[in-house]
Protein: Regulator of G protein signaling 16
Amino acid sequence: MCKGLVSLPACCLERAKELKARLGILLQKPIWTLSCCKIGKNKKFQLYLSMFLTIFRPTLEECLKWKESFEKLLSSRYGLCAFTAFLVSEFSEENIAFYFACEDYRRTKCPTKLLTKAQKIYTEFISSEAPREVNIDHETRDITKANLQDPSPSCFDQAQHRIYMLMAKDCYPRFLHSPVYRDLLCQAKPSTKPTNLPHLVKKV
Structure:
């Protein structure tokens, strides 16, 4: 057990185990389901994240790549976990949950499952009474609702694009300046690749 964890209350340890289990799932699955993103909100989240990082530690090289683009962050499973942790701490993890729910939906081949998933995504994220309502404009909401009359793999495309741009322009820059990302850089494993240092030529 990590140093200092013995003194924590039992409820904290149980919550840490839950976080480890849920984020650990993301490292094993290439596509998220709605249930994968329901991590929960807690004021001790930074503590749980720190415990998680003692078990799953990306390399420094990988962490630095996340600064290159939002796309590179999302393409990394560790980066995805870290970004999700950041969104949870800001009470806005519904954005990443919706985005990957749409990704999963688009890959669905069975027409029956397509209809079921479309209704679930709409109820969960788009409806005005949705428990995890995402921030989209009224026009996009209306278009998405109309698309559900005849669900196709592209019926959430406009709404998904809106949320992607929201995360890329707003959440992503704040993530790069957040304690979550700074902690990751500090705790990251050293790169296994040899560093190419310039040769020192002794002058005669």
Summary: The chain is about 60% helix and 0% strand. The radius of gyration is 20 Å.
